[in-house]
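Write out the 3D structure for:
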Amino acid sequence: MFQGQIDLDTAMPVQAGAIPDVLFERGLYWASGRSGVVNLVAAHKWFNLAALKGRADAITLRREVAELMSEVEIAIAQREARAWITAH
């Protein structure tokens, strides 16, 4: 159990700190099929978000995933990424 104190004046939400790594990991999860299902739309979405948050290696993986997708699938992934940004 956490016994320390949190300084709320200097604390950052998780989204502001470790989020690029978390987003990148979600992209890897869906691209690799760790769940038992490969979901390229989800992988593209998460790699796109990770790239927007500063993960340069996500750009390369997003391109690789996009090569396997149709234009419609890419558009869906981009729309989902925009929706996520709006919500968060």
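Residues 18-87 form one domain.
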